[in-house]
Design brief:
single chain; 77 residues; mainly beta; SH3 type barrels; 1 helix; 51% strand
Length: 77
């Protein structure tokens, strides 16, 4: 199987919050659970206390990026 350009980066992000760019132009966010078997598994927040574990085939993903750190000094409330 051809290794995707983002694969090595994604393996190091397992267990972290990530943003996933899909080839259809959409984006999803969540905690990266695994990157194996040609599938990325992401735990996404839905509503209130509901989460969904979703699977994305490698060929539907354009890129995977970690969340940046917060750059806001001090509390905002």
């Amino acid at each position: 199987m051809l290794q995707m350009p983002w694969y090595t980066k994604a393996v190091g992000l397992v267990g972290q919050p990530v943003g996933v760019s899909l080839v259809n132009g959409q984006g999803v966010t969540g905690v990266l659970c695994s990157v194996t078997g040609g599938t990325v598994v992401l735990q996404e927040y839905l509503y209130q206390s509901q989460f969904a574990t979703k699977q994305y085939p490698f060929n539907t993903i354009q890129d995977i990026n970690s969340f940046p750190g917060c750059s806001v000094p001090g509390a905002l409330f």
